[in-house]
Specification:
Elements (H helix, E strand, L loop, with lengths): L3 E2 L4 E2 L4 E2 L4 E2 L4 E2 L4 E2 L4 E2 L4 E2 L4 E2 L4 E4 L19 E2 L4 E2 L4 E3 L3 E2 L4 E2 L4 E2 L4 E2 L4 E2 L4 E2 L4 E2 L4 E2 L4 E2 L4 E2 L4 E2 L4 E2 L19 E2 L4 E2 L4 E2 L4 E2 L4 E2 L4 E2 L7 E5 L2 E6 L13
Parallel strand pairs: 1-4, 2-5, 3-6, 4-7, 5-8, 6-9, 7-10, 8-11, 9-12, 10-13, 11-14, 12-15, 13-16, 14-17, 15-18, 16-19, 17-20, 18-21, 19-22, 20-23, 21-24, 23-26, 24-27, 25-28, 26-29, 27-30, 28-31, 30-32
Antiparallel strand pairs: 32-33
Length: about 250
């Protein structure tokens, strides 16, 4: 079988490894993992037991840096860590210095940048992008093609619909003053954002708030409030039956 498995890699019991896979130095893979074809796992990465990684996926990639890049990655970066019983789809890239908790589903073509922390039981959909320095809690859903900008925070039980776009730079790449004001978005526990909505830099979607599809968020959204429009304005309150406290078992 055409594989490269470093002599210093530590493989648990009952690990299945596909064709053309590269497992680099000091990688640790737990018991009962399934590693697909053409997978690359970079040095010192850790994969928890029972995790499945599909074809053509890369774990622990170091970021590129252009001479024009605002923030330069450190020369030495911590290895990527993937928890137990995760499902990682095909053509996924998980960068170095990224920590992913247990029982997460990361679907095909998703990208998880460096310095990202992800809790447990999240769903990250196809072609979703989670940029660097993002913190994600537990039990969130990120649907297909959504984009979470750098320096954002998503708490627990949030829903991000397809094609949601978030941003962190009000200066649009000009004026050195922008370096003092980079700020991503904050989505607090139970926040929900509808399809194709846009969230401007630094805005907060508060607890149990709902952003209607296609809306432009230019102000913080109050808790348990529905907002709609461009720019979005309050149009009502979230129904009692839809509040998170009444849906935790669903």
């Amino acid at each position: 079988m055409n594989q490269h498995i470093s002599e210093t890699a530590q493989l648990g019991k009952n690990v299945s490894i596909g064709f053309n896979t590269v497992i680099c130095d000091n990688v640790v893979i737990g018991d009962d993992c399934i590693i697909g074809h053409n997978v690359v796992i970079h040095p010192f990465a850790q994969i928890g037991k029972g995790t499945r990684i599909d074809d053509n996926t890369i774990i622990g990639k170091k970021p590129l840096s252009s001479p024009r890049s605002i923030f330069k990655p450190p020369v030495e970066m911590k290895p990527a860590v993937v928890g137990e019983y995760c499902q990682i789809g095909a053509n996924v890239i998980i960068y170095a210095q990224c920590v992913i908790g247990d029982k997460n589903l990361i679907a095909d073509l998703a990208t998880i940048r460096e310095n990202v922390s992800i809790g447990t039981l999240n769903i990250i959909g196809r072609n979703a992008t989670i940029e660097n320095f993002v913190t994600i809690g537990d039990r969130n859903k990120f649907e297909t093609n959504c984009y979470i900008t750098a320096y954002s925070k998503v708490e627990d039980y949030c829903f991000i619909a397809p094609c949601v776009a978030t941003s962190n730079d009000n200066y649009m790449g000009r004026d050195k003053e922008r370096f003092n004001h980079f700020k991503g978005v904050t989505i607090k526990t139970g926040g929900r954002i509808g399809v194709n909505a846009t969230i401007l830099p630094g805005k907060v979607i508060n607890e149990d708030a709902m952003v209607a599809g296609g809306s432009l968020i230019s102000k913080d959204v109050p808790p348990e409030t529905i907002v709609l429009g461009s720019p979005a304005k309050p149009v009502g309150e979230v129904a009692e039956a839809q509040l998170l406290k009444n849906n935790l078992d669903k």
